[in-house]
Every structure is written in C-alpha cells, then in structure tokens.
Amino acid sequence: MVRLSQVGEFGLIERISRRENKRPETIVGIGDDCAVLKLPTSNIKLQNKSERTKYIYQLITTDTLVENVDFKKKGLSFFHLGRKALAANTSDISAMGGIPTHALVTLGLPKNTDVSAIDELYRGIDSLAKKHKIDIIGGDTTDSAVMFITLVLLGEVEKVNLLLRSTARVGDLICVTGEFGGAAASNFKLPTSKLKTNVKIARKIAKSQTATAMIDSSDGLVRSVMDICRASKVGARLYEDAIPVADGATLDQALYGGEEYELVFTVKKGKMDRLLDGKIKYSVVGEVISPKLGVILIDKRGRIKPIKSGGYEHFKK
Amino acid sequence: MVRLSQVGEFGLIERISRRENKRPETIVGIGDDCAVLKLPTSNIKLQNKSERTKYIYQLITTDTLVENVDFKKKGLSFFHLGRKALAANTSDISAMGGIPTHALVTLGLPKNTDVSAIDELYRGIDSLAKKHKIDIIGGDTTDSAVMFITLVLLGEVEKVNLLLRSTARVGDLICVTGEFGGAAASNFKLPTSKLKTNVKIARKIAKSQTATAMIDSSDGLVRSVMDICRASKVGARLYEDAIPVADGATLDQALYGGEEYELVFTVKKGKMDRLLDGKIKYSVVGEVISPKLGVILIDKRGRIKPIKSGGYEHFKK
C-alpha cells in the first residue's frame, strides 16, 4: 500500500492530471492557476470581426482552506479567513490576466459553530467581492467535524490577454511585482489590511502584451518559478541580489516563504520598455534558460547556490 | 450566542442568500438546484435571430460529501463514492433541464490515505464522466483530518429549456419520474449499479415544453415539493395512493426518504398529452394549489394527513 504522505501533493496532482480532455470548449484543464473554457460555442456569431475578441475565455479556479492545516480556529478572525479565501482565488484569476466575476462558497462547519462567526466570514468575503463586483451565486453548506471553506471563482479574459504558465521561452526575463518574505517574516499572521489583491496590476501586465507567461506567488517565489519552468519545459536563473526582499524578512523567507499574492511573469527581452510605459512597477529577478540547466540561483558573488525544494507541499510529513 | 444547530441548514441558507446580485450575467443565484449565468456578454452578436437561442445559459452547481456525515470510511467503496458525488451534481444540472459539461474535484484527505483508494474514487467519477462527456478540468487537493469530496459541475441549457423551482403556478399538476423510497428501504446502501443519472429524461421533459418548474428529489419527495412551493409561493396537494412506492419500501420512506435522483416537476393541465407523446414515463402525484392551503397530503380515504417536516437537514441534531 502506498500512502498519500509518500507521493505528496505533487505526486497526487500528477496522478490526477493524467487525463485527456475531450470537449471543444476546454482550452486548459488541470495544471495552471485556472481552467480555461472557450465560450460561447457554435451557435453564436460575432459582432466584432477580429479574432482577438472572438470568444469569451472563462476562467475557473478553486481553493480550499482546512482547519488545523491552513488555519487554527483558536483566536481566528472569521472576517480575515473569508477575505483570505477570496483573495487566494482572485489571485489565481489575476495570474491568467483576467477579472473575477462570480463565486461559489462551500462551508463545512461543526454543529456548534456560532452563527455570528459565519456572518463575519461572509463579511470578509463580501469586503473583497464588492470591490471587484463579484456575485456570490451558490455553494453548499454541510456538517463537518473539521471546519473547511472551499471557494470557487469564475472570471473572464479576452483571448489576446490570456497568460498561461506554459508559454515562457528561453531568453525571456523573469519579473515579479511587489516584495517577498513579508508573510513568512510575520509567521503568516499578516494583518487583514495587507490582504490585497493584484487584479489591477495583473490586467496592466496582460494588456501591455509584453508577458509570455504568468503565475501567482502563493506557494513561494522559487516554487512559482519552478512551476513556470515545469509547464514551459525551460530552466531559470535567479539572481539573489535582484530579489525584492520585504522589510524584516530574510532572503530565505523571500525565496521560499509563500502565502503572498504577488505575480511572477516572463517578458520577451525586447519588450521591456512597454512595461515601463504602462507604469507597471516590477523587478527583474532572473532569466529563462535552457531546461538542461534547471532552476539555479546565483548568489551575490556570482556562484551557483543550490535551490531548496520550493514551498509548502500538502500531505508530506 | 446562537449555535448553527439551532438555526439549522435552512436557517443558514436563508441567512446567506439574503444578498443582491449585481452582474448582468447572473440570472439565478443562491436558491435553486444550480446557479444560472447568461453567457456571452455584450460583445457578441447572434447568428440565429430567434430570442430562443440568443444566449447560452450556463449552469453551475456544487455538492460536498463529508466523512461521518454523508459516508463512513469503514467498508467504503471509493468507486461508489466518486460515482455518487458526480451523480448528485449531475442530478442538479438535469433538474434545470440542462446537460453537464465540465467538473472540478476538490479532495480533503488524511495523510495516511491509500493512493490506490484515490485512483478508485476517480474511476468512479470517470465512469459517469465518460458517459456524459464531462471533462474534469480542475480542483484542489488538501490535507484534512476528516475526508471530504467537493464536486463542482458546470452545464448548459438553452434559454427556452431552462426550468426553475420558482415558476410553478396554481392549477399545475405535480409529476414525478421513477419510484421512491428504495434508497431508504435499503438503509441508503443502494448498489453502485443503481446510481443512475436522469439527464435523458430531464432533457425530454424540458424539450417537451410542458413543464413549468422542476427540481430533483435528492432530499426526499415531500421536501422537493415543499422547495418548489416555497420558491414559487404556492401550495401543493399530494395524493397518498398516487405516490409510486419502490418495491420493499414503506409509504413514509417514499415520502421522506431521499437520496434518490428522480425528478419532481409541475405541468400545465392542458399540456399533459404532450408529455405522453414524448414517451416520458411519469406519475401524477398531486396538484399545485393556493399558498394559503400550504402543502397537504390526502390519504386513501380522502382525509388530510399531516406532513412531517420533510427530509434531511444538516446541522440539526
């Protein structure tokens, strides 16, 4: 018998994603920040003749937070939890270049849960939903000895603005928004006011038509770069002294910490000017290299430093 | 402090659903078997001039099964569990008159789960997904002390075939497919071979253009009728001797048992012939009456019998 703790989250996902999608609407299935569906189907004709606006690309993502794994109930702010659940999903929509539109909320709750705590949770969700004009259209509520919250978020993106993980090319520069390590430095207890979303800057990046691939940094900067590399079949060289480290954080926290909703994206070298024209604030942290070289880190003295296995992995002990 | 066990699932849902949807695509939010979105949005024009095929109506539903609430792990067939999760969601799509298209699977799993059990679970899901040409396009996997499976199912329906809970009218006849009480009579241990879906007959009913409202019977026959009545602001009279009771089941099991994926629908009296023409097998079990009269049951001797509070409710002790 093989236990889940032996194969880990990545092993499980690989096992699950070995499947063929057959419907014509399915553009991206398991393996990116969101699934992508091409809508509408055959019986619709176009107002705008341009291929660029031919379809709506619908984005779908889901993220689950479980008690004692992703949060502890002791001293928990339910407002914070609700806001965090929507922020995490919104970040996945952003990372595809899209805007969020509709959400479903599933709650697993112990019978003795205080009803006012659930109201607080919804207030946290609504605080972000209102900002981004997201409708909460459904979900499920069920008994559960362990509390959990599963959020499903739909969004949309024009075909021309869709950004995948799998389309980085050798020679591209690797860029990031914001700073890293702040969440880890605060022992993952960032105040609710720091739970921001990145929809606006993600849209700017997507619309600038300069990026070749994008992902969010929720599992850590290095892990995100590795995910782009795996999906794009490329390698990456990161420069230690180019990493924007948050105040009070160590370089290790910036590289591996996670739980931050920044964007990691790749840009064709010749197109960097346009990013600046778009008034997008970003840092160049490395470049895309041959897959043979893998993902490597260059320290301040120009030496190769080993990469630690990146970020958090579920099921591993 | 008010505990969840005091307000119950229905109280919680009412609390949650007191919200206004604002996006133009949102046709139905919380409160029916599925949410309904009108797609595409503004930048698309039509090939077919008829209003009837003007839009795609996208259906979205989600259902969660939790260990020790909806299933026990001891002696569990993971194949059965996976198939049941997809069957339950498919039934919600059917109940709107639609066809299922894409699914997301979220699993909360203890670390010591046997990986081959997860493979079995997916084989169960796939056994139905293949039949209905459903693509599995995403989901999430996470550690959880208590096992749970959350399935999200997307579907679509032509505007003209969409059937809601809220559109039954006084004078309509109440009809059902199949028989009731079989699941309860087997102590909710129906063999996997009996886990069938009702997509075909639901589509026949929808396309016959005779039904005014529809719902699935997963929470029990009486509860389903009550749900239609609440949403449509009508009452209902059910005739005890018209209820199709499954072999070996009692009348009470047929009325209140649940965990069956049959359809409960209302039909305008003058249109019953067309149902027969469509070769749809159904039983007439009652009629829609004034809301002032509530939901009542008439026994074999013509007397009014009290309705028990219908079906299973989460959180209630």
Radius of gyration of chain A equals: 20 Å
Q: What fraction strand of chain A?
A: 25-35%
Number of strands of chain A: 14
- Tally of alpha and pi helices of chain A: 8
Note the overall shape of chain A: globular
Q: Assign the CATH superfamily of the largest domain in chain A.
A: PurM-like, N-terminal domain
CATH architecture of the largest domain in chain A: 2-Layer Sandwich
Classify the helix fraction of chain A into a percent range.
25-40%
Mean pLDDT of chain A: 89
Sheet of most strands of chain A? 7 strands, mixed
CATH class of the largest domain in chain A: Alpha Beta
The secondary-structure element order of chain A is HEEEEHEHEEEHHEHEHEHEEE
Task: Determine the N-to-C terminus distance of chain A.
Answer: 17 Å
Give the oligomer, counting copies of the same chain as homo and different chains as hetero. Answer: homodimer
Interface with most residues: A-B, 83 and 83 residues
Count of discrete structural domains of chain A = 2
* Order of strands across the main sheet of chain A: 9-11-8-12-10-13-14
Helix/strand-derived category of chain A reads alpha+beta
Q: Main attributes?
A:
homodimer; 317 residues; alpha+beta; Phosphoribosyl-aminoimidazole Synthetase, Chain A, domain 2; 14 strands; 27% helix; 27% strand
Characterise the protein shown here.
Two copies of one chain form a homodimer. Chain A starts with a helix and ends in a 12-residue tail after the last strand. A seven-stranded mixed sheet of chain A has the order 9-11-8-12-10-13-14, with helices on both faces. A six-stranded mixed sheet of chain A has the order 1-2-4-7-5-6, covered by helices on one side. Chain A folds into two domains: 4-159, 2-Layer Sandwich (60s Ribosomal Protein L30, Chain: A); 163-305, Alpha-Beta Complex (Phosphoribosyl-aminoimidazole Synthetase, Chain A, domain 2). The first copy, chain A, has helices at residues 4-17, 78-94, 115-131, 182-185, 199-207, 221-232, 251-256, 272-277; strands at 26-28, 35-39, 44-46, 56-66, 99-109, 135-143, 148-158, 173-176, 211-216, 235-239, 263-267, 283-289, 295-298, 304-305. The model of chain A is unreliable at 41-53 (pLDDT under 50). Chain A is built from eight helices and 14 strands. In chain A, helix 2 packs parallel to helix 3 and helix 2 (78-94) runs parallel beside helix 5. The first copy, chain A, has 317 residues and is of the alpha+beta class.
